[in-house]
Amino acid sequence: MNxxxxxxxxxxxxxxxxxxxxxxFAFSTFVMRALGKLPPAQGLAAMxxxxxxxxxxxFLGTLFGTGLVCVPVGIMAITRWSEPGxxxxxxxxxxxxxxxxxxxxxxxxxxxxxxxxxxPEAPGSAERWFRYxxxxxxxxxxxxxxxxxxxxxxxxxxxx
Length: 160
Hints:
By secondary structure, the chain is mainly alpha-helical. It has one domain (3-159). Helix content is 86%, strand content 0%. Helix 1 crosses helix 3, helix 3 (57-79) runs antiparallel to helix 4 (86-116) and helix 4 (86-116) packs antiparallel against helix 5. The longest helix has 35 residues, at 3-37. The radius of gyration is 18 Å and the shape is elongated. The chain starts with a helix and ends with a helix.
């Protein structure tokens, strides 16, 4: 892989991680709090709607496409370990793939799928919604920080 291609892929990683981190940052800092201020049935129903609408090519392409680009960049970091910025490239790739993509697949997708089965008006749904929102938000902080840290690593690699 030539330097120009590695530069372009690293830039794509930096931008993709930043965009995804920004989306998750919005959820961590105000979206989930706003949903929590609604009556439980309304907050639950709104989150169910968000979880359907988010499954679109633009968001999923950015979330998972960035992860796919991080893989060859991480491999190139290992093959160019003695070059400046290689450690940042590897750290960025690992942070994003493990802390954002894998975390989304392992933690958020199953929780979102379980939430989709709830009737917002059914007895017990409010308690399940409160538990969902608390755990979901805590784990969202993790993937937010991972994506933003990954973006920073890729930016540092570009500057190295």
